Amino acid sequence: MKQGLRIGHSETIETVVTPEMFARFGGEIIHPAYSTVSMVYHMEWASRKIILPYLEPHEEGLGASVQIKHMGMSPVDSHITIKATVSQIRKNIVVTDLEVRNEKEMIGVGTVTQIILDKKEIKAKLAQTKGTVMD
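The chain above was modelled as a monomer; its predicted structure follows.
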């Protein structure tokens, strides 16, 4: 990983809630509101934006852990802001704390942990698991 990434560095993404982001299972909409699945996706995306400028050409980040608390609802057309802030850097591990807000309030908090690995190592690990039968 390139030098320069520091605790406190943050990145933000913004989005608008669309029907594709609604809570659904088996194609059926359960609630016409911003889903937890969408929130996790956006948290990982904001966290990824942090590491991208610091990856060497031979490196890639892997999600290792996501912890989330979804505290509020946001209907269609709500404006969502997701802010990730680096809270820990340990060797090849980057931890970010996240806040998710709509126009009125904080609707989610969480932590995303990413591991930075050599692309060859990732490829080798994938090859080892390919064809493995899971019980």
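The beta strands are 10-16, 22-25, 28-34, 59-70, 79-90, 93-101, 106-118.
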